[in-house]
């Protein structure tokens, strides 16, 4: 579908990219909590000293009113116990990351490092530790000739933070036990991928796409300025660059692709009714277009729909490996990918064109079509799970579910995958009953493709 880029969505993508970079870091929230705790630890004792004996009795009765030794004991115990709890939290988090990497997929580490509960727990522990130490320096016993001083408000808050930290540790352990379950992981990746689909492919499938400009043989090559994964394309920037130089740009790489510095990623040429760019402007044009590409050392889900599928299929591939041998997990993964594929059948996929204010096509973005997502979903499960009847049965169910939603232009890709599954079934020596069941599943997929399938079997007349 040919369309222009909306300013709101472009600005939203920029905020999402920056937010995703911060969200997947463990340090920002804990560091902020430490800074706030230090400020609070300095300010509350000053407030205590300013109030002095004017503290209302109703408030004073609720505070910890011990002497300097009691105040120091509470603050020292809070600081000592919290640094131990923080060490335990870090250790459990690292073990979780190691388990997720080895048992599921290294691509899932972003899911765990972006967990807000982990961030909040570390922030609570480190903030309480820093606060207790900061307040401890203000407690005076009076042995050195100075007036004894105990900041009762500050000590009471330290006590409350210590209790909150104990409760937070219990909730953190319960949360960690839930988050490490593969079902929870798949549900989170599914939800994140569905949200990315809504952002990247917001338009429902409509009429056939109009013809797009074809690059001439004299088109200028545009190379990438750095190596890494293509994590995003600034549509506003690349459209502005093309309009500025009165050119047309075709981007030949997809978001999520691996880029190598100096390798062409796009081509540009002058519009048919506009003058050819002068040689001195060509380098500036190339630089302006290349600046619209964002590279990173790892893929993200901000603009990369295929990354979500990659994460899910990695879990299935690991589950089907001889070392783990967990086909049930692979079957559950196929259930999640089936739902995502059914959603994609209703979306405008493939190439996307951006127009300038005059309605001229200036940018052609290459995006994956339905066949690319279907191949990504089934290539590895068929490769590693073709000998398991349960996996093949779920693959056939996936094709049947997708076929029920698919439109005409998507059905050839489904038929191609169906032929691969049929060939895999023939190569395996399954028992006759299993062979008969799988053949029946094959027939049901064909019926769905022909529009003559229902939950209760074939029906006459097909579907509208």
UniProtKB/TrEMBL annotation:
The keyword Transmembrane helix applies. The keyword Transmembrane helix applies. The chain crosses the membrane at residues 26-46, 77-97, 117-136, 156-177. Keywords: Membrane, Transmembrane, Transmembrane helix. It comes from the Bacteria. This is DUF2254 domain-containing protein.
